[in-house]
Amino acid sequence: MKKKATLIIALAAAFSCTAAFAGPADSSRWTIDGDYAIRWDIGNDIPHYDHIEMSGEQVSVVYRYGVNEDGSFSMDRSVVWPMLRTVPNDTHASLTVHFDTDFMSGVTVDGKALEGEKVRSITLDGIMSVLSTYGNAPVEVTECYFPSPTRAAVCERYTITNTGDNEISVFVPAVRNVTETDPEAGTEGSYTLIASTGSGIDRSYRIAPGESISFGATIRGLKQPQMEIPIDVDREKAEREDFVKTICGELVLESPDPVLNTMFGFSKIRGAESIFATRGGLMQCPGGEAYYAAIWCNDQAEYINPFFPFLGYDKGNESAVNSFLHFAAYMNPDFNFIPWSVIAEGYESHGPFDRGDAAMLAYGASRYALAMGDLQIAETLMPLIDWSLEYCSRKINSEGVVASDADELELRFPAGEANLCTSSLYYDALRSTAWLIETMADEYAADGKSAESSAAADEAASRAAELRERAATLKGNIEKYFGADMDGFHTYRYFKGNDVLRSWICIPLVMDIFDRKEGTVQALLSPILWSENGVYTEAGTDVFWDRATLYALRGIYAAGYPEKATEHLAAYSRHRLLGEHVPYPVEAWPEGDQRHLSTENALYCRIFTEGILGFRPTGFRTFNLRPQLPENWDYFNISNIHACSSLPYDILVKRSGKKLSVTVRQEGKTLASYNIREGESIEVTM
Predict the structure, then answer these.
(1) Which positions carry the signal peptide feature in this UniProt record (predicted)?
(2) How far apart are CA 593 and CA 605, in angstroms?
(3) How far apart are the C-alpha atoms of 553 and 306, rounded to whole Å?
(4) Cα–Cα dist 385/358, whole Å
(5) Tens of pLDDT along 179-220?
(6) 268 touches 601 (CB < 8 A)
(7) b/e 170-198 (16+ beta carbons within 10 angstroms → b)
(8) The CATH classification of domain 249-622, taken from the options 2.30.30.140, 1.10.10.10, 1.50.10.10, 1.10.3720.10
(9) d(CA 529, CA 491)
(10) CA–CA distance, 490 with 486 (Å, rounded to integer)
């Protein structure tokens, strides 16, 4: 059996991670097990330990699990309650507690404690399921671990099956451990933490051959004097399964590579589950035992918010609008920089310097408004977009690019007085806002207010032209200021004076700046920058942040190199989905020890929507497509897309000789079909 349960209280502190660093010899420990599931069949390659984060509206949990050398199961749960705030109430003030409680420790079969555990398999499919047998009893035990979708609790379900030929007796003792936290350490006093089985009394069962019994357990957190309302673990499990099924049924990827299809599904789950019901409304949060009940200009506004309209997840879209409005509250007439994060359920902020956050906000909000296709939402976001564009305009330096104190890495690496990311984001925001202004004018015209709409259309056309002119000027200045030959590659320097290749040279490619695409792609995929874990942050280091790799892969597709992009995407995806640390993109290494932050998952999905498919919103009901398929792919489909449409639709790409056949279908009917050259752009109107 597992070691005796202990409880360690660690307020707002991260637990040391034991997952091994995935190296180049990393093999496929896991296999794909049906739709959106992977399984590890335990062999001789033990011990092995890993960690995975799962989230619900009121709780998040990092399961540190593994199989010991003797074949037994190891589990530690780091449970985070984002709305149980600790002192001081800062970014990291979510109550975090480690539990290694073993709810099976007192179970007996025919009067004997279970011994000689051998884990047979572990399955991940939005729920962790562990199948074990024991050396001294004819039983199989399946343990299921998952967060409650809506309650401040993590849930576990244990099923004991009689695999023998005779009836057995099973005793399941009641477990109940209650802890009251230090009242001085909580913003609302003491919190009550309860680890317990579902039954408050000991129970005995007789199980016939082939039959099973189940019992549930929960770890919950309560504010005082909240009542302890019973939790039906079976119902919670069904709701978790329904959530996973719903998310996996929208924005469905079909490619010839099952690894990509499966990881795409997992990424949707992780991005969508990490949304918390805070006092400040729904907040999509990065997670990682550190970042909850808070939002960031890069993680939310730039990375995941523009993705939610594609997924069509109502809670995701509500959280996106809510995040933009929280940042909008910090607009000011003096154009001082907006804080980079709004924390503590929306009641505090953090950000001591400018990371280019206004460019992130303008980029994300303008793309989001276009993809949502909702005039009211666009009107709500326009003040923030306008303010952010004006802020960036005021930060343009004497050489025509946007100055900022840092970038999203917050001075972990140098970024100079003006960096490539900030100017590239601003460039894209100018282009998206021009389209947004035009489509809003079209909506006003459709209302039938002829006199007003005519004047509005003229004004919109004038402003859109002015924004496009500014974008064109900025594009030229980006080339002049950042364009450079680095280590023999015709690419970019990240800032003035930079003489070392950086991962973010990929950012112009994502923003449709292709002046130096060949040299940039060569540099990104060279041994100087590329590794088995993707792109290094800076040449000469072993530091990597997956967000840069995910941007780079999207940019390489956009630049027209689908063969190279697919080769590296496939290797990266197999490494992350089926290797030693699964099943999601990670934040970084060595910082955070490869935490499963949530918003990187949106960046993974955007490789397919914006990279391979080349989807670019240009209006509430219009978008451009520029499909890029590798030669050995005969098809590429994404179904149940919600962006730029009131109803979901499918986009099907099929190789037809030397051309691509592109079909847009909605409700079983073909809306449009095209026969195009590889990399050719088409405009679709829904």
Answers:
(1) 1-22
(2) 23
(3) 18
(4) 9
(5) 999 999 999 999 999 999 998 899 999 999 999 999 999 999
(6) yes
(7) bbbeebeeeeebeeebbeeeebbbebbbb
(8) 1.50.10.10
(9) 13
(10) 7
